[in-house]
Write a structure and sequence with these properties.
This protein is mostly helical and 177 residues long. The relative contact order is 0.14. The protein has helices at residues 10-22, 31-34, 38-60, 66-80, 89-99, 113-131, 135-167.
Length: 177
């Protein structure tokens, strides 16, 4: 992924607001626009990732126990009833622990994209519902998400530049110069 081309634009922020207010269905009409190219899709998905991380951090930080994370995931799955299978417990626990910069569990569950995305979305929606934001609270959450995501993207860009510099060293002058 070329993070140097990923930008958080106003349409990304508006789509996140709709997502948080209406749920994943709000993004259905945007699918063609979101899938225009990798960088456009990454703008939307980066904000979703940022919202997840901010929500998890608000819930569990500054201190937490692994037991609290396990109980949270178990409670979420219980509330989901017949849809509990959409949240793989190991995937959910791994996502939460990574968002808190904690060591991941020994077995983080399946690595496929779908279980990770399902768990991430359902945890995010639950945490947003649990927060019961008023209008100002939602706007603050979105602002915090944009700030987090911009910093995360800047880190990815810096990492990408470091790798590029390591792979493509400066050319050495020829003997004739």
């Amino acid at each position: 992924m070329d993070y140097s081309r990923v930008r958080i634009r106003e349409e990304n922020i508006l789509a996140l607001r709709s997502f948080l207010l209406e749920g994943p269905e709000a993004w259905l009409p945007l699918q063609d626009q979101m899938q225009k190219d990798d960088e456009t899709a990454a703008g939307y998905m980066s904000l979703l990732f940022g919202a997840f991380n901010v929500a998890v951090y608000r819930k569990f930080s500054p201190t937490y126990t692994v037991g609290q994370i396990v109980r949270f995931v178990a409670d979420l799955r219980s509330r989901l009833g017949k849809d509990a299978h959409l949240v793989h417990p190991l995937v959910a626990e791994d996502l939460i622990r990574r968002a808190l910069s904690a060591p991941p569990p020994k077995d983080g569950g399946p690595d496929e994209v779908l279980p990770v995305l399902q768990a991430q979305v359902l945890i995010l929606m639950h945490l947003v519902d649990e927060a019961d934001f008023d209008r100002a609270g939602l706007e603050q959450f979105i602002d915090d998400t944009v700030t987090f995501t911009e910093k995360w993207l800047a880190t990815r860009r810096a990492e990408s530049t470091e790798v590029t510099d390591q792979v493509s060293p400066q050319p050495t002058p020829s003997r004739n110069e």
